[in-house]
Amino acid sequence: MDLQNTVKEALTALYHHPDDAVRMQADRYLQDFQRTLDAWQVADNLLHDPSSNLETLIFCSQTLRSKVQRDFEELPSTAFRPLRDSLNTLLKKFHKGPPKVRTQISIAVAALAVHVPAEDWGDGGIVKWLRDEMDSHPEYIPGFLELLTVLPEEVLNYKIAARPERRRQFEKELTSQMEVALNILTACLTISELKEQVLEAFASWLRLKHGIPGSVLSSHPLVLTALSSLNSELLSEASVNVISELIHYTAAGNTDGVSANMPLIQVIVPQVMNLKAQLSDSTKDEEDVKAIARLFADMGDSYVELIATGSDESMLIVHALLEVASHPEYDIASMTFNFWHSLQLNLTKRESYISYGNEACIEAERNRRLQVFRRAYESLVSLVIFRVQYPEDYQDLSYEDLKEFKQTKYAVADVLTDASSVLGGDATLKILYMKLLEAVSGHGNNEHKEWRPAEAALFCIRAISNYVSVVEAEVMPQIMALLPKLPHQPQLLQTVCLTIGAYSKWLDSASCGLSVLPSVLDILMNGMGTSEDCAAAAALAFRHICDDCRKKLCGCLEGLFHIYNKTVNGEDSFKVPAEDSLHLVEALSMVVTELPPEDATRALEALCIPVITPLQEAIALGPESLSKRPSRQLTVHIDRFAYIFRYVHHPQVVADAIQRLWPIFKAIFDLRAWDMRTMESLCRACKYAVRTSGRFMGLTIGAMLEEIQSLYRQHHQPCFLYLSSEVIKVFICCCVTGLSS
């Protein structure tokens, strides 16, 4: 009794004491109490005590539930029947609520059934025991129905500390009693106020691998009740759950499984299709529309192989799913996205057509299906564009809202790539280009407000870049001609830059590519001076263009170096972050690789000058100043050397450069050997110089090896060992090459 009072006092303190420290102490005490053996009896006593308040009842029901789930083996084998009887009494006591308490007691009984074999419950296990209890005490049916609902759910509840073989046995026990459970639920249908609860329980049981034939379920009273509830004025969430589970069940297994369940499918599909008009009913509650959309999405996902045949009946489902995709609420429209992806895979993968035999028949059927679904995917492309448009209040979006908006854009991009796989990238591009033209022609002089539709269209054009032919000559030249005319609004300019980068391969292959490059580079320069995000996008695009168009750009070195120097020198007009400036270093290095050795020597020297100058200045200030300088002030320049040595593929030219630079590097090695961050950066730069130059490094490689070995004995930096291994590898490769020749 003293312990019961202590628990009550702790609960009172937890919920009502004004002092936070006292509440925390009470919380710790109660958590510790729940792990004790005494918690069984105390929780049971307080639940039976008529004077216990709601807080006590909730805590004790949760305690008893967790003890049954996790600590059942604490009890002696003789404790099962008294515990079952006590829980049964409590289930009857709380049959009208409080709901939280009743739910916890129901879960506790279900967890007990997981632990205890069916024979201990009597003939037929817990399901027949429950049926007998309901027959004997019909006044407590609501409480027993909740227990019947949670029973199948506990099969996959891994909070219950049951052994795997016992858990599997429990699932078999429930499955064997499926008919009994459905008979109980069917009998309860006569009580109209329990219909919602009955359907929830039915949905729960359907999640088991029950194996009931579709022909039986198609005429079952529970199924017919759920279907009729779909058409009631107040849409039942429980009926939606039932139909959703039935849809999943009919599609489970292989194609034969779908055929075997065709009687049930033929009952479900017409009833769900009758709900299509409600998708666009403005008077309908949004939650009801979401529930209806969920059913259509479930049908699409489950019957995608049947739908992919392109029959007239399947196209009705496709049109309904397009209706869902057009809903203004993204949460509703996005329910269909997985279907469009699955359908695309089914239409484009060869495995879907193997049953058609020879290649000619396979190709003919594939082309037929692609043609059938062409219009649907064209509509889909037009429907999803507005989803990626920035909201008018985008500047006021919180971090979480902005993150959610980005996720929406990525999801729409995936839908567009699915459409491109079916329609072809060039055809999809034409649709998106028309949307871009509408956006540009529609805003007149009001640039500030109307940049958003153009940005959305360009984002979509960028998303399908991998599917557009590099020789596309109808639309892409017009898009590239349009880009310089767009307003330099930061978000729009950022997307323009990313779009340019995405089509770098097209710029290299297109006949007009060379004439377009100057205007493209001007856009990127504007981007680098607009905002950090925009500058980062422009730097990335610059790298892609220099990678794919490097041969074309060899004649534009002066302009490229102008951009490079402004970026690396950190001029105020450019806002490229230090990390993103590495994209420009990499970009110029790839162009330099295409030059003949004589020109590459001069170009590499020009590449290195803005990088080495700050390091020379730092060394010139003296050892004390260099040793006190923050690591970042050195590594930002040294990392650029790593990129230069990695991407300039002229071994002799790089070897000559590292020989000239070695005194600077050695000074930093000597004065900053204690600084792990700077040493890692410098060793990385040397590693790439060694890999690129190889045997051409001559005396420098010996000096480098001697330096790092000496420093390792003093400072034991791991990066020294790694660089030593790289140097030794080059020596070995050179020796092997020399011997073999």
Task: Describe the secondary structure blueprint for this structure.
Blueprint: H1 2-16, H2 20-34, H3 38-48, H4 54-71, H5 80-93, H6 99-115, H7 125-136, H8 141-153, H9 164-176, H10 178-188, H11 195-206, H12 214-217, H13 221-230, H14 237-251, H15 255-260, H16 262-273, H17 286-302, H18 304-307, H19 312-325, H20 330-333, H21 337-348, H22 359-372, H23 374-384, H24 399-423, H25 425-441, H26 447-463, H27 476-482, H28 490-502, H29 504-509, H30 513-528, H31 532-548, H32 550-553, H33 557-568, H34 578-593, H35 597-620, H36 623-628, H37 631-647, H38 651-672, H39 676-693, H40 699-715, H41 718-740
Keywords: Nucleus, Protein transport, Transport
Subcellular location: Nucleus
Domain Importin N-terminal: 26-88
List keywords for this structure.
transport; Importin_beta-like_NTR; Importin-beta_N; nucleus; mainly alpha; small GTPase binding; 741 residues; 74% helix
What does the model show?
- It is a single chain.
- With 741 residues, the chain is mostly helical.
- It has a domain at 601-740.
- Helices cover 74% and strands 0% of the residues.
- The chain has 41 helices and no strands.
- The chain is globular, with a radius of gyration of 36 Å.
- The mean pLDDT is 89.
- It is found in: Nucleus.
- Belongs to the importin beta family.
- One of its GO terms (biological process) is protein import into nucleus.
- Keywords: Nucleus, Protein transport, Transport.
- GO terms for molecular function: small GTPase binding.
